[in-house]
Amino acid sequence: MFPQLGAPLGFLCSTAVFLALAHFLDERQFMGWGWRVPLLASAALVLLGLWVRLRITETPAFRRTLERQERERLPMATVLRRHPGTLVAGTLALMATFVLFYLMTVFALSWGTSALGYGRQEFLLLQMLGVLCFAATIPLAAMYADRFGRRRAMILATVGIILFGLLFRPLFAAGSAWQVLLFLCLGLGLMGLTYGPCGTILAEMFPTPVRYTGASLAFNLAGILGASPAPYIATRLAGSHGIGAVGLYLAGMAVLTLLALLAVPRQPVD
Q: What is the pLDDT of residue 140?
């Protein structure tokens, strides 16, 4: 649960830095060099992340694997050779998560400050309030998943994303900052509901000797295939067919995720 909170906390910190720079720098200074400051500062977080990772001990299950000398020499090759179906299912199981996040952050900021006419600082403040819902729903989803199962928690969150996609057009409109705030709170709140249990459900899908590698591969593939093209696809759809098409795109990705989750075997609740 707590590692998952890094995403909303990181978003809040980075947005706060951009707002501070925008306040103290004029447009020419910001576009000339100011935008690089948060990126350079983030290099320190890479070192911090490496330090944290090196201090994390292995899980009891993996230590038992080492004791039985069952460790895979080439875990990535093993995942690709022996568990390709699980890898595909794990990737699709997180597609809606990544598409939703980048629609609610990158695309929403771009569309809101261009097509809808909101100021950049105003919209960033609205996003920061929405991210608070993201942070709040992560522990709620994690507690629900621990009690009723990770698969069930992810399925319910994905159904919510499908419904949210169908409401995309009436919620994300110009003229009412309160309505946009509701849109962001709902979308980012759903992001927390799916993000809370996603790491655990991925780990449960792979056997212990390749669990870390399999989960990491699925997570990163979902990020590449889901997150990378999402802002571009959404911008093209919104420009050509209206903002409602973006919601249908999100709902379609969520349907793929739902089908993948339904194919995941039921796991016992701890």
A: 93
In angstroms, the first-to-last Cα distance of the chain is 15
What phi and psi, each to the nearest 5 degrees, are found at residue 206?
Answer: -115, 150
d(C-alpha 245, C-alpha 261), whole Å: 24
Say which residues have a Cβ less than 8 Å from residue 75's Cβ, sequence separation at least 6: 209, 210, 212, 213, 214
Instruction: Locate 210 and state its tokens.
Output: 């390749």
Q: How far apart are CA 17 and CA 44, in angstroms?
A: 15
Gap between the Cα atoms of 67 and 25, Å rounded: 58
Structural domain 75-263, CATH architecture: Up-down Bundle (1.20)
The secondary structure of the chain in percent helix, strand, coil, rounded to multiples of 5, reads 85, 0, 15
The pair of structure tokens assigned to 128 is 């920061």
> Mean pLDDT of residues grouped by 10 in the chain (270 residues)?
70 82 81 81 77 70 63 81 92 95 94 90 92 93 90 95 95 89 96 90 85 90 92 95 96 96 67
Please give the distance of CA 163 from its chain centroid, rounded to a whole number: 18
| Alpha-carbon gap, residue 226 to 105, rounded angstroms | 14
Are the beta carbons of 100 and 193 closer than 8 angstroms? no
Distance CA 23, CA 253 (A): 38
Domain ranges of the chain: 75-263
Q: How distant, in Å, are the alpha carbons of 71, 82, 199, 269 from that of 207?
A: 11, 11, 15, 17
Is the four-CA dihedral 41, 43, 45, 48 of positive or negative sign? negative
What pLDDT is attached to residue 269? 41
